Amino acid sequence: MALRQLSDPLIDKNPVAVHILGICSALAVTTSMSTALTMSVALTVVVTLSAGIISAIRAHIPGQIRIIVQLTIIASLVIVADQLLQAFAWEMSQRLTVFVSLIATNCIVLGRTEAYAMHNPPVPSMIDAFGNGLGYSLVLMVVAAIRELLGAGTLFGAQVLIPQAEGGWFVPLRLMLLAPSAFIILGLMVWALHAARPRLAEAREFALRESEKEARP
Amino acid sequence: MAERRPNPWRRFLARPNTDPVKSVGIAALVAATCGLAVSVTAVVLRPIQQENRLAARAGQMTAMLEGVPGIAELLPRGGVETFVVDLAEGRISDTDPVDFDQDAAAADPARSTALPPAADLAAIGRRENESLVWMVREGDRPVLVILPVRGAGYQSTIRAYLALEGDLNTVAAFTVYDQAETPGLGSRVADPAFGAGWVGKRIADDSGIAIDITPGAQGPYEVEAISGASVTGYGAIDMVHFWMGPEGFGPFLENLREGTAWR
User: Fold this and answer.
1) What is a single molecular function from GO for this protein (chain A) (predicted)?
2) In chain B, whose CA is at the least distance from the CA of A87?
């Protein structure tokens, strides 16, 4: 049970690739693997802790103000995480700029607390949130690996492919370091996932209206 | 006989979640707890963050100084001294540079001056009354003066260090340390290649400040422009015009030349 909760969000219920949540930050921080890893860790910690805290007090959160109470807790954890990064990983926080603070608006966090932690005990909630954090991290790391390898020829900053300028054969693909490439890679990932797991394809909510044949005079 | 009433905390928790008292109470409790957690973290970590911030700027300064020929050997003896300059008066001020926060001064109406639009070449709106200045001196003679300059670029404020040689007119280095211009175009203002285009250029000729930015720069008063980022380039040159002028470090540099910068 607990294992499924952890493994499901990795592929079958992946928050980014299947539910298309949290892609703003997924696009922004994936130019290098080190920023993607930091962001992944920050989000996983925040989502796990907020799920635990919210689940622990869920019986006493009044229904009318539940969203703002959840957001207050999430935002506080995000600020604490951001401050910690600024204190102990200054250069990394400079490279992540605003995106750590934006975890507060990340739909994955609010989605898990609202959909799961509000109705389940703390331990399962934290496992579920941790699994979703890992799912987000997996997508980020894959996208970042592709972008950094093809864009700069490095992985975690270590030169893997030697660029032509330094005597190798590799021509860095500058497009990979720009935002559109993240859209393209993420789109291909979603497509590949849907092709491999046809049951993920959703039924159409409504059919397109057939266009009527125009009467020709 | 009424049974013993439970304590107020239990009574509060036992209220139904639809009860307004409980809603307000829970909201206040959550807000207070979260506020406390955030404040404690911010206060406890502030000294470490401040250290990081200063170290980052010092690193940038060192990197810039190392690139200036003839300075590296001066650094071990004496090194870089930090001063606070009263800009209007053009003299070294009594303010202690250690805890002088220039950004705070620029935002404080009591410690800054509103600029008339005609004089505001850098488009910064207000100018702080005092500014930090770094100097490398040999005896009493400055051999390198580093001025912090800032101004509006295309879509952000460009902040840079302008280093002048001992004649206070030749650019020794120009390093942008903070900007948020268009990535790939204006952001190249922070590239070493753009800074290299400034080295050895002169700020003023006999008739006044003459430095300009242009593609295919020639002669001692022209800096090579960034292709595709004209507005960023104009912003950079305009801010140098402003900060070298009478509203900026002009009076101070004049006093420094005359040897009357210290009171």
Assistant:
1) oxidoreductase activity, acting on NAD(P)H, quinone or similar compound as acceptor
2) B49
